[in-house]
Amino acid sequence: MSKQQGYRSRSAYKLLEIDDKFRILAPKQLVVDLGCAPGGWLQVAKQRVRNGCIIGVDLQEVAPLDEVTVVTGDFTATATVQAVVNILGGRKVNVVLSDLAAASCGMASVDHIRIMSLVRAVFDFCVHTLDNGGSMVAKVLRGGTENLLLAEIKKKFARVAHFKPQASRCDSSEMYIVAIGYRPDHQAH
Ligand SMILES: C[S@@+](CC[C@H](N)C(=O)[O-])C[C@H]1O[C@@H](n2cnc3c(N)ncnc32)[C@H](O)[C@@H]1O
Prior knowledge:
Blueprint: H1 11-22, E1 30-34, H2 40-48, E2 53-58, E3 68-72, H3 78-88, E4 93-98, H4 108-129, E5 130-141, H5 147-156, E6 157-163, E7 174-182
Parallel strand pairs: 1-2, 1-4, 2-3, 4-5
Antiparallel strand pairs: 5-7, 6-7
Helix pairs in contact: 1-2
């Protein structure tokens, strides 16, 4: 179906479902898509963020897409984050998307630690770049987001939910944390 409809990945349908439910993407936004190859989420973002700006990051090369800037590199490396920050040039981001997935080693506990360190890097990036009211979507594994990190995320966003799109295979342990309404100065009591 994804090929028929011109999407580069099946993952595109996951973002469509997430956005249909949570209404994250809107015209004129600045969106950063982490782990963007081969580009299905970039295509969905392009459709829904008209006249905006979309930046993707991946370890792998991504075939060019009009109006999308891609940084090739490891998002956990400072040089890659710096390259994105340079492109932003001081502008604040409205939406940070992450479908980042480290290759599974087959041991659930190790996979969980690896994906959590990616989500931590995504959240840290949000803290430095996200605009007031902005959103973050990040892939996590079954069991959701690790408690300490989840507590930090909840402090900084008005609404936080875990969501498993139907397009995500039910035998897969992936799900997404969706955090809406970034409020950097909020003090939780
Ligand atoms: C599930 S795929 C993303 C699919 C994409 N959302 C789409 O719709 O086409 C996960 C991607 O994360 C990338 N990735 C994993 N670890 C990464 C890292 N440390 N830095 C940058 N990209 C990474 C992989 O190269 C892979 O392309």
